[in-house]
Every structure is written in structure tokens, then in C-alpha cells.
Amino acid sequence: MKWIADISCPVLMHFEIQHDSRAGYYLYVWENGKGLYDYLQDTFAIAVDQAFEEFGVPKNSWKQIPETQDDKAPG
């Protein structure tokens, strides 16, 4: 599963949370298309809280998007 959120203050930032059943929830952070950070959290709620506390991403801005073949871990 994957969720995304975008904010622009003062620069365009893109965030993704991806679930990995073996590890947890990865929070990925991009600024102007450049990958900056990735964090691993135990739960979706913790990843959302971290994005809010560190980057100001509103908790209600997350949208679940369909998983693509590229998002799926190999076998």
C-alpha cells in the first residue's frame, strides 16, 4: 500500500508512505524532485505523525493510491 501528500511552502515537497509487510512503513521525502530522507516506522500513524511534526504535512492530506507493479517487492 502507498499514500502520498504534497505541500509547497516555500518549496515543493512530495511525501510517500509505503508499507512493507516485512519491515513496517517507510516515509520518503523529496524536495523539488530530489530524494532527501527515508525513515522506517512501525505503524502508518507514526509515519504520519513524523511527517506532521518534522515537515508540517497536514495529517488529513494523505491520499491512498493504487499500488503499481513497480511498487511491489520481488517475490
Q: C-alpha Rg, in Å?
A: 12 Å
**Strand order, biggest sheet?**
4-3-2-1-5
The dominant shape is: globular
Give the number of DSSP strands: 5
Run of helices and strands:
EEEEHE
> Separation of termini?
16 Å
- List the uncertain runs: none
Which class best fits the helix and strand makeup?
Answer: alpha+beta
Helix content: 10-25%
What do these coordinates show?
With about 80 residues, this protein is α+β, with helices and mostly antiparallel strands. The protein has one domain. It is built from one helix and five strands. It has a five-stranded antiparallel beta sheet, covered by helices on one side. Strand 1 and strand 2 form a beta hairpin. The longest helix has 12 residues. It starts with a strand and ends in a 10-residue tail after the last strand.
Please give a quick description of this structure.
By secondary structure, this protein is of the alpha+beta class.
Secondary structure blueprint with pairings:
Layout: E1 2-8, E2 12-20, E3 24-31, E4 34-41, H1 44-55, E5 63-65
Antiparallel strand pairs: 1-2, 1-5, 2-3, 3-4
Task: Jot down its keywords.
75 residues, alpha+beta, five-stranded antiparallel β-sheet, globular
